Amino acid sequence: MIDSATETDRPKHRKRDEIIAFLILAVVIWPILSVAIVGGYGFLVWMWQLIFGPPGPIH
Predict the structure, then answer these.
(1) Residue 6 confidence (pLDDT)
(2) CB-hemisphere CA count at 13 Å for 13?
(3) What contacts 49, CB < 8 A, 6 or more positions away?
(4) CA geometry: angle 52, 57, 59, nearest 5 deg
(5) Which own/partner contact pairs does 40-43 have at CB distance under 8 Å and 24+ positions apart?
(6) Where does residue 56 fall: left (phi above 0), alpha (psi -120 to 50 degrees), or beta otherwise?
(7) What is the pLDDT of residue 57?
(8) C-alpha span between 42 and 21 (Å, rounded)
(9) Distance CA 3, CA 1 (A)
């Protein structure tokens, strides 16, 4: 049989786990991921310009 005490604690733990998961995503993972994406794009543009030259008309 299931105790009523353990059944009432489950939603609290689930909500707490969801809040912790959200905070980890919002505070840790998304900022790191956004910096990595922007930095990767900047690196890609930099390497492209090293190989093919800067944008603009050909002199």
Answers:
(1) 56
(2) 6
(3) 55
(4) 90
(5) none
(6) left
(7) 85
(8) 30
(9) 6
Q: What is the pLDDT of residues 20-57, one digit of tens each?
A: 999 999 999 999 999 999 999 999 999 999 999 888 88
Residue closest to 53 by CA, chosen among 42, 40, 39, 45: 45
Residue 35: both structure tokens together: 């910096």
Higher pLDDT, 15 or 10: 15
Dihedral in degrees, nearest 10, Cα atoms 24, 25, 27, 31: 140
Q: Which two tokens stand for residue 53?
A: 């030259």
Give the pLDDT band of residue 9 (cuts 50, 70, 90). low
Scan for tokens 């990767």, then name that residue: 40
